[in-house]
Amino acid sequence: MVGGFRVHREQDGAGEGVQEFIGHYWAALVYFVAFYTAPHGEPDVIKPGLALLACLALPAAAAPAPVENPLAAAIARDYQAKLAPLYDYLHANPELSYMEVQTAARMASELRAAGFEVTEGVGKTGLVAILRNGKGPTVMVRADMDALPVEEKSDAPNASKVKVKDMNGNIVPVMHACGHDVHMTSLVGTAHQMAARKSDWKGTLMLVGQPAEERTGGALDMMADGIFKRFGKPDYALAMHVIADVEAGKIEVSEAPFSGADLLEIVVHGIGTHGASPHMGKDPVVIASQIVLALQTVVTRDIAPREAALITVGSFHAGTKGNVIGDSARLELTVRSESDDARAKLLAGIKRVAENTARAAGMPEDKLPEIRHTDRPVPPTLNDKALMQRLRGVWSSKLGEGIFDKGYQRGGMVGEDYAHFIYGQGIPSVYFVIGGTPGGQVAAARAGKGTIAYNHSPLFRVDAEKSIQTGVLATTTALLDLMKR
Ligand SMILES: [Zn+2]
Ligand SMILES: [Zn+2]
């Protein structure tokens, strides 16, 4: 049913109460139909008068009885009892990348209490929780655990007031401004549902709490720590991210949810001289400026127009004084792609443009620009097409087509280090997004009538109840299909 899980928040209260109150089979049935089929329906928008009117107009036997989703009802109960307090704790107590010590400890205790065998300290502060349930596929679900050095300015009651010393010794504010607290709470919720349904599935469920996603290092560290050798290589892998411009209560899935990223620096050499005698040297500011502009033609002229590719020069440092031509300039770039071919063309194009721009300025061969990676590259997160189609079908049939936020279009080329778990591993994987913002706000923003505080904003605030329940529902529904008996 469309939005079936939302309805079930009402099942414990208003829904059944109304049925008794009206005491008339058809009136009650139509009331429920109105509930269940209201688009984006908050139950309080359904007017009893409207239901009554519909009742009078409805021919007998035309209305199908709504299908209940007991899983959604169970998740709603678990949210009130256990997940809401867990989310409150995690949101109010964020920790920076590689410093997720209390977070990992809390996650370990939650997952142990759910019956999982938990190993901590995998890839520094990561953890792996295993639930074995006979012979069957091993399925991995990953949640990231780190927060950001952002000062929370949202009006959430559990807003973070945390300040810590970061790895460089600076005192910084900390906030779960990317929703990783939603991912962790959903992971625990999924653990509860799967542990309660062991008779419905078989295999090994492997839940991963990954550190340092925001520094794009945690997944690689867990791989370097032999996660798949120690705990088994998954037959399938799942992950999700809450996104501010997707409607809370909905999900979406696409072939390339995240891009690959290369972070580079280019040191452009020049020959220093007096600012009033440029002919006596080679000006690195001019050479580097030409490189910055020429790099944009690598994207537009070397890459096929329908292929995703991006080069951003985010940092440009040179010189000390207006009348001095220095001897170097330093550029820092992020380079994004979604295929090996595009990535190779971008990296080759950057080298070609940088070196030949310097040659054109007359720089000697031993003083051409130096290009190097400043960080470990991140591969693109690409969904397995067959698995994506299978899960789309499962979600659609179990949760209704309305579960998808079809108005969402990924615009940027954000990266995600989850890719290190699956890229080149031959593990079919699906990474999906879940909504974080009430539907009305999303619709208004898409119509150009308002803005949404996006992930990483100090004002980022998700509808945690809906987001987390949707995360658990979508993940558990997928797992019950992939691991079905
Ligand atoms: Zn983030
Ligand atoms: Zn994130």
Automatic annotation (TrEMBL):
MF (Gene Ontology): N-acetyldiaminopimelate deacetylase activity
BP term (GO), one: diaminopimelate biosynthetic process
Q: Does the keyword Hydrolase apply?
A: yes
- The answer to whether UniProt assigns keyword Transmembrane helix to this entry is no
Q: Which residue range or ranges hold the Peptidase M20 dimerisation domain?
A: 264-359
Q: Which UniProt keywords apply?
A: Hydrolase
* NCBIfam families per record: amidohydrolases
PANTHER family registered for this protein in UniProt: METALLOPEPTIDASE, PUTATIVE (AFU_ORTHOLOGUE AFUA_6G09600)-RELATED (PTHR11014:SF63), PEPTIDASE M20 FAMILY MEMBER (PTHR11014)
Q: What is this protein called?
A: Amidohydrolase
> Origin organism of this chain?
Pseudoduganella guangdongensis
